[in-house]
Design brief:
CATH class: Alpha Beta
Oligomer: single chain
Strand order of the largest sheet: 3-4-2-1-5-6-7-11-8
Radius of gyration: 23 Å
Helix content: 25-40%
Order of helices and strands: HEHEEEHEHHEHEEEEHEH
Shape: globular
Distance between the termini: 43 Å
Strand content: 15-25%
CATH superfamily: Survival protein SurE-like phosphatase/nucleotidase
Length: about 300
């Protein structure tokens, strides 16, 4: 992450003895005790999800982030919106409930919830961070593309607000008890990650580079789900779909649909590989469909000479 010309503290400490040696001995100032560091101001966090405003994951996230000293406000869907991706409604009105001082429940998608939160709840002053989750189940590989949890984070990034999508689960069908148990370690890690972002961000600057968010997937570790992950990996979104749909003709104009896990060999360095190994996957993501300069050059070469 860019530091905007700020010399790291370690470099300053290493340079200090040499700089002191350049002055005459008689002029050397007496050492003074260092002042205690000024505590960082609490972050204003908009917390959303796709499982619903009262789901276990978002409640655990609210409790842990608040206990860490942050000013957290839930603005999340009224009902379960899993799998809605980046969908945003275009209806002329939306129902919103305000069941508690720090809780808003929007009858729409995660994207609708974030849009309402940024426009109304945080009107005039955007939050420092949007956290979406923690989700019940993983959002790796193709699952991330269609995830409402990730969609909520994308809605924030589109509005220029730093965002983290947070999910809990392995690549198999999630077990309710162990997955909910694993949400504790998931949110504990999120608190550490946010502390790291604050420490590394430029002074008074955003927590993440403009347009970049983080998709974090925490595995379920141990028989009870409360175990500690084996490590943390910087990953990318594996290109496999993970789920394979199957359709059966019911003979009456409808088709019965079933879905099964279709796990293929994991890409080296991808999010699936990390989670399968019991490690936390942290993948950078953006809110647009741009694929990078290499693909732009390839596309330009592909259409060179074409005419309408």
């Amino acid at each position: 992450m860019r530091r905007d010309h700020v010399m790291p503290l370690a470099a300053l400490l290493l340079c200090a003895p040499a700089l002191a040696g350049t002055a005459p001995a008689a002029a050397a100032p007496q050492a003074r005790p260092e002042a205690a560091p000024t505590p960082a101001a609490p972050l204003r966090i908009l917390l959303t999800n796709d499982d619903g405003y009262d789901a276990p994951g978002i409640r655990k996230a609210f409790e842990r982030l608040t206990a860490a000293g942050h000013d957290v406000t839930i603005v999340a869907p009224l009902t379960n919106q899993s799998g809605t991706g980046t969908k945003m409604a275009s209806a002329p009105s939306v129902a919103v409930r305000h069941p508690a001082p720090k809780v808003w429940a929007v009858d729409g998608t995660p994207g609708d919830s974030v849009a309402f939160g940024l426009s109304e709840v945080f009107e005039g002053r955007a939050p420092d961070l949007v956290v979406s989750g923690t989700n019940f189940g993983p959002n790796v590989a193709g699952l991330a593309t269609h995830s409402g949890t990730v969609g909520g984070a994308v809605a924030a990034l589109e509005s220029g607000v730093p965002a983290i999508a947070l999910s809990t689960g392995g690549v198999t069908a999630p077990d309710p008890v162990t997955t909910v148990n694993a949400m504790g370690p998931t949110v504990d890690f999120a608190v550490k990650l946010i502390d790291r972002l604050r420490a590394r961000a430029p002074r008074s600057g955003p927590l993440l580079p403009a347009g970049v968010g983080l998709n974090v997937n925490h595995p379920v570790v141990g028989a009870d789900g409360k175990g500690t992950a084996a490590g943390v990996d910087s990953t990318f979104q594996d290109r496999q779909t993970l789920l394979k749909p199957d359709f059966t003709d019911a003979g009456d104009g409808t088709w019965k649909m079933s879905v099964k896990v279709d796990l293929r060999p994991a890409a080296r360095g991808g999010d699936v590989e990390a989670v399968v190994a019991g490690r936390i996957a942290v993948s950078p993501m953006s809110a647009d469909w741009n694929t990078g300069p290499v693909d732009s050059v390839r596309t330009a070469a592909l259409i060179a000479g074409l005419r309408p």
